[in-house]
Specification:
membrane, GPI inositol-deacylase, Jelly Rolls, about 900 residues, six-stranded mixed sheet, PGAP1_TMD, 30 strands, alpha+beta, signal, protein transport
Length: about 900
C-alpha cells in the first residue's frame, strides 16, 4: 500500500511540477531592450501640506528629472504636461525613470516644443497585492497628490486641468479606484495607462479588504459607466512571460460597455512584438517607445496639453498599440493628396508581380491598373521592404498614363510587420478606385522590393480543426499549402477555450532556385488583442505555441487565425498537436492561487480519516497513510458540481439565499469563463500529491529537529496526564490575545505556531527514546524471562499502552500542525506588511488576521496539550470525526476565489477538537 501510494502520488507531484515548469520556464526569452539614462536621474521631493504629511507619513511625492532639466525644475516653475506614475505591489517610485528619460530625449528632439513632467509616488513598497488594508489609503493619497500637482501649474499660461496616470501592477487598480471616492472629480484624469494590472480579480485573494476593494472598483466602473465616459483607458498585459499576473486578469471588466477602453498584450503591440515579464514591462524599451510616441501624438497644439477629445485619444492609442500603418499619425487619414514627381505607368498582365529597384537616386511613383482584375479577384495584397517611408501607397480615382487626379493616401490601411510592410485591400470597398500608386523614395546603395498580387479570399483561406484536448499529442491535424501567393489564412476551428494548448509546426520548402526570404507567422485572436508574431527563414522548421489569455465570448463567432505571410512558389506544411504539458501549464497558470485550497482540503480529509480510525480501532494511523486512504476526489468534487448545477434552478437559488450562503466560487469562475469540470479534479489530484510528499518532508524535518534537540538537552520522558488548563497557560493565552489586539494577529499566530512546533519536537523526541528503551527492555526480558517475577512482567503491557497513547496523540498533533502551517502561510503577507511598517505604527489596522489569531491563541493551550485518550472518551468524538469531510467540501466550494475564508474552516475543525477534550 505504501509503495503504491508513493508511486502514485509521486506521479501526481511530477505532473504538478511539469505544469509549473511550463508556466515558469517554457516561454520565450526576454527580448526587450533595456532603457538607459544618459544623465544621472534625480528625484525632487515635492513638499506636501502638513495635514497630508501627518495623515500619510509613509507616502511621498517626487518629480523626476535628469541633468539640466532637473536643475531647472528645482524651483518648481513647471510648464510641461503632468504625468503621474503609480508603482505596484512592492514597486519602487524610481521605476518612473524609463518613461521620464525617453520622454525627455523625445522633447529635446523637438526643441521642447512640448514636454512632459513626470511625477511618481513612493508607496513605501507596500505589498498591496497580498494585503488589501492599505489600498484605500493609497487611493486617497493619490487624490491629494493630483490636487497638489495641478496647483503647481495654476499661474502658467497653459495650465493643465487634468493629469495622465501610468499605473504599474496594483498602481493601475489604485488609479481606477479614484473614481470611487465621493469627492473625486472624474475630469481630473483624462488618460490612464495600466501596465500588467490585474483588473478582474486579485492574484491571491488573501484578505477580505482586498476582494472588497476589487468588488467596489469593478462595480463602479460597470454600473456607473457615465463617470468614465471621458476617461480613456489602455490596459497593457505582459503575455506569457508574466507569470505573476496572467494577461487575462488585465482585461478590463465590462470592456464592451466602454468605447474609450482598450486592452492589448505586449506581444501584439506594433514595433514591440515581445512578451514582457511583470517587472520588465516598466523598462522594456520597445514598449516605452510606443507609449511615449502616443503621448506626443495626443498633444493638442492649441492647449499644449493632452487632447480633450476622447475619440482622438482612442485613434492615437489604436494607431500605436493595435495597428501601426508604418506612417505618422493623422487624425483624418483618408485625405486627397497631390503626387509630385515622376509617375511611371506599369501594365500588369498576371495576377501577381514583383518590382525591384536598386540604387534609385530620385523618388518615383509607379502606377498599377485595377480595372482588369475586379471581376476575377476580390482582394489585392502588397508587401513592401520599405520600413522607414511614411506614405507609400495611394489610390487613384481618375488617372491617365501620365497623371493621377484625385489621388488619396491608402497607407493608413497598411500594417507594419517585423520585416515588411503589408496592405490588403478589399476591392468591393473601393468601387471607384482605378489604379494603385506605389511611391519609391531615394534608396541610394539599397534595394527596394515590392510584391503584389490579386486573389480570391476563398482561395487563401484554409480551415484546420484543432486536435481534441484529451488527445495528449498522439493525434495531429495537418494541412499542406502549395503557396502561389503572399498570404494565407489558416482558420483554427474550435480553438476558443483557455485550457486548450497546442504546438503548431510549420515546415517550409522552396524551389531550389528560389530566392531565400523570411516568412512571418502571426497567430491572430480576433476577440482580443493578444496576437503573437514569429519570423522564420525559408526553408525552415518552426514551432509555435498556441494558447489563449481570454476565452472566446459567447456572443462572438469569430475564429482564431494563423496568418502566413509567405513566399510564392514555396510549400508550407502546417501541423497542429495538443501539448499535454502546456495544457497542465494553462491549468496552473489560471488556478495556481487555488492550490492551497486543494492541499488543505486533502489534509482535512486525512484528519477526519485519522479520527475515524481512532474511534473504530483505537489506533490512530499515520498522516501519510491516512491521506492515501481518505483523499478521494469523489468525496468532494461531485458535491461541488451538483450544487453548481442546482444553483441554475431558481427554487434552489432562493433557498441558497435564504440560508445567507455566499456565492459558490465555481459560479464566479464560470462567469469568468474559467470553469471546466475536470479542472477541479486535476487540482485536487495535484493537492493530494503535494500534501502527500509534504507530509513525508514534514516527518523528515521533525525527525531532524528532534535529533538536534537531543544533542542540546536531556529529555524528561513521556508527558504525564495533566490538566488541560493551568494558570500559566491561561496567562499565556491572555498575553497572546493582548498581542493580537495591540500589534498584529499574524504575529500572534506565528508565536503560537512556533510554540506548538516546539512541543511536538519534544514529544517526538521523547516517544523515540521511550520506544527504544521499551524495545531494548522487551529484548532483554525474552532472554531472561525465566528469572523475571510475575510482578515485573506485568509492568511491560502498561508501559506499552502508555506509549501507544502518546504515539496516537503525536500523529494527531502532526496533522494539526500541518493545518496550522497553512494558516501561518496564508497570514504571512500581513505579518510582512506589519513588520515593514513597524517604525510608523505598532498596530496593524485594519488587521485581517485578528479574529483568527484571537480564536487560536485562546484555545491553543488545550489544543497542544490534548490527547487521544480524551478524544476517544468524548461524547462529541463521532461528530468531530465526520465534520472534516463537509469542511473539506466547503473549502473547495468557497475558497478558490476567497483564500481568506479557508482558515475559518480549519479553525472550526480545531474548535471541535478542543471541545472533544473538554466535554
Amino acid at each position: 500500500m505504501g509503495g503504491g501510494a508513493a508511486l502514485f502520488y509521486g506521479a501526481l507531484a511530477a505532473l504538478a511540477l511539469l505544469g509549473v515548469r511550463d508556466v515558469l520556464f517554457l516561454h520565450e526569452e526576454n527580448r526587450c531592450s533595456m532603457t538607459y539614462m544618459y544623465e544621472y536621474p534625480e528625484y525632487l521631493k515635492i513638499k506636501l501640506p502638513k495635514k497630508i504629511s501627518r495623515r500619510y507619513p509613509t507616502y511621498e511625492l517626487y518629480l523626476y528629472g535628469e541633468g539640466n532639466y532637473a536643475e531647472e525644475n528645482k524651483n518648481l516653475i513647471l510648464t510641461g504636461i503632468p504625468v503621474l506614475f503609480l508603482p505596484g505591489n512592492g514597486g519602487s517610485y524610481k521605476q518612473v525613470r524609463s518613461l521620464g528619460s525617453i520622454a525627455l530625449r523625445k522633447a529635446e528632439d523637438i526643441d521642447f516644443k512640448y514636454h512632459f513632467n513626470f511625477y511618481t509616488v513612493n508607496f513605501n513598497e507596500e505589498l498591496v497585492a497580498l494585503y488589501g488594508g492599505s489600498l484605500q489609503r493609497q487611493t486617497r493619497f493619490v487624490h491629494e497628490c493630483i490636487k497638489v500637482i495641478l496647483k503647481l501649474y495654476k499661474d502658467q499660461e497653459y495650465a493643465p486641468k487634468s493629469v495622465v496616470i501610468v499605473g504599474h501592477s496594483m498602481g493601475g487598480l489604485v488609479a481606477r479606484a479614484l473614481l470611487t471616492l465621493k469627492n473625486f472629480k472624474p475630469e481630473l484624469i483624462n488618460l490612464l495607462i495600466t501596465q500588467a494590472t490585474p483588473h478582474v480579480a486579485p492574484v491571491m485573494p488573501l484578505d477580505k479588504y482586498l476582494t472588497d476593494f476589487y468588488t467596489a472598483v469593478n462595480n463602479h466602473w460597470i454600473l456607473k459607466a457615465q463617470d468614465v465616459r471621458n476617461l480613456t483607458t489602455l490596459s497593457v498585459a505582459g503575455g506569457f512571460r508574466d507569470y505573476q499576473v496572467r494577461s487575462g486578469l488585465a482585461f478590463l471588466p465590462g470592456l464592451s460597455q466602454h468605447s474609450s477602453a482598450l486592452f492589448v498584450v505586449s506581444s501584439a503591440v506594433p514595433r514591440t512584438w515581445v512578451s514582457t515579464d511583470h517587472l520588465s514591462i516598466v523598462w522594456c524599451k520597445e514598449l516605452i517607445l510606443a507609449t511615449i510616441r502616443a503621448f506626443f501624438d495626443l498633444i493638442d497644439e492649441n492647449t499644449k496639453q493632452i487632447t480633450e477629445d476622447p475619440k482622438k485619444r482612442m485613434l492615437v492609442l489604436n494607431h500605436h498599440f493595435v495597428r501601426y500603418p508604418a506612417k505618422f499619425f493623422e487624425e483624418d487619414p483618408e485625405t486627397f493628396t497631390e503626387l509630385k514627381g515622376t509617375l511611371i505607368w506599369i501594365k500588369i498582365e498576371s495576377s501577381k508581380w514583383t518590382y525591384k529597384v536598386y540604387n534609385e537616386s530620385d523618388g518615383k511613383y509607379f502606377m498599377f491598373p485595377l480595372s482588369n482584375h475586379r471581376k476575377t479577384y476580390s482582394h489585392v495584397h502588397c508587401q513592401s521592404s520599405m520600413m522607414d517611408t511614411n506614405s507609400w501607397i495611394y489610390g487613384c480615382l481618375n488617372s491617365s498614363s501620365s497623371m493621377c487626379w484625385e489621388g488619396f493616401d491608402l497607407s493608413w490601411k497598411a500594417e507594419l510587420l517585423p520585416t515588411v510592410k503589408v496592405v490588403t485591400l478589399k476591392l468591393q470597398e473601393y468601387p471607384s478606385l482605378s489604379n494603385l500608386v506605389i511611391y519609391v523614395p531615394a534608396i541610394n546603395g539599397n534595394k527596394f522590393t515590392l510584391d503584389c498580387e490579386f486573389f480570391k479570399e476563398d482561395s487563401r483561406t484554409v480551415q484546420l480543426p484543432v486536435t481534441h484536448l484529451f488527445s495528449f499529442g498522439l493525434s495531429s491535424s495537418k494541412t499542406v499549402l502549395n503557396s502561389t501567393g503572399l498570404i494565407y489564412n489558416v482558420q483554427l476551428q474550435h480553438f476558443d477555450q483557455i485550457y486548450q494548448a497546442f504546438k503548431i509546426y510549420i515546415e517550409s520548402h522552396c524551389h531550389p532556385r528560389k530566392e531565400r526570404k523570411t516568412s512571418v507567422y502571426r497567430l491572430h485572436i480576433p476577440w482580443s488583442h493578444e496576437d503573437s508574431i514569429t519570423v522564420s527563414k525559408v526553408p525552415s522548421f518552426t514551432e509555435i505555441s498556441a494558447k489563449l489569455h481570454i476565452a472566446q465570448p459567447e456572443n462572438d463567432s469569430t475564429v482564431a487565425v494563423l496568418n502566413i505571410y509567405s513566399s510564392s512558389d514555396c510549400q508550407y506544411e502546417v501541423t497542429i498537436k495538443t501539448s499535454f504539458s502546456q495544457v497542465l501549464g494553462q491549468v496552473i497558470r489560471f488556478h495556481s492561487a487555488s492550490l492551497p485550497v486543494y492541499i488543505i482540503s486533502n489534509v482535512l480529509l486525512a484528519y477526519g480519516g485519522q479520527l475515524s480510525t481512532l474511534l473504530s480501532t483505537g489506533q490512530c494511523s499515520d498522516f501519510v497513510l491516512a491521506l492515501a486512504k481518505a483523499a478521494k476526489p469523489y468525496k468532494v468534487d461531485p458535491i461541488v458540481n451538483i450544487v453548481k448545477f442546482l444553483l441554475g434552478f431558481n427554487w434552489f437559488k432562493d433557498l441558497w439565499n435564504v440560508l445567507f450562503l455566499p456565492e459558490l466560487d465555481a459560479v464566479v469562475l464560470n462567469k469568468q469563463d474559467m470553469w471546466f469540470p475536470l479542472v477541479s479534479l486535476i487540482l485536487f489530484l495535484f493537492g493530494t500529491g503535494i500534501a502527500y510528499w509534504g507530509g513525508i518532508f514534514f516527518s523528515s524535518v521533525l525527525r531532524l529537529l528532534s535529533s538536534l534537540w537531543l544533542s542540546l538537552t536531556r529529555p524528561p520522558g513521556l508527558p504525564k496526564d495533566s490538566k488541560l488548563m493551568t494558570l500559566r497557560r491561561v496567562f499565556v493565552a491572555i498575553l497572546l490575545v493582548f498581542v493580537s489586539w495591540t500589534t498584529c494577529g499574524a504575529f500572534a499566530i506565528l508565536i503560537i505556531y512556533l510554540h506548538y512546533m516546539f512541543k511536538i519536537v519534544k514529544l517526538h523526541l521523547n516517544v523515540r527514546i521511550e520506544q527504544n528503551v521499551l524495545n531494548m527492555g522487551q529484548k532483554h526480558s525474552k532472554e531472561t524471562s525465566s528469572e523475571i517475577s510475575p510482578e515485573a512482567s506485568s509492568a511491560t503491557p502498561t508501559t506499552t499502552q502508555a506509549i501507544d497513547n502518546v504515539v496516537n496523540s503525536l500523529k494527531i498533533h502532526i496533522t494539526i500542525i500541518n493545518l496550522l502551517t497553512w494558516i501561518v502561510l496564508l497570514s504571512l503577507p500581513s505579518l510582512i506588511y506589519w513588520f515593514k511598517n513597524l517604525r510608523y505604527s505598532i498596530r496593524l489596522d485594519p488587521d485581517p488576521c485578528r479574529t483568527t489569531a484571537i480564536i487560536l491563541v485562546s484555545t491553543s493551550g488545550i489544543l497542544m496539550n490534548s490527547s487521544t485518550v480524551k478524544i476517544k472518551s468524548s461524547k462529541l468524538s463521532k461528530i468531530a470525526a465526520q465534520v472534516p469531510l463537509p469542511l473539506s467540501v466547503a473549502v473547495v466550494a468557497f475558497g478558490p476565489m476567497h483564500l481568506y475564508r479557508v482558515p475559518y474552516f480549519v479553525i472550526f475543525s480545531l474548535l471541535l477538537h478542543v471541545l472533544c477534550c473538554i466535554v
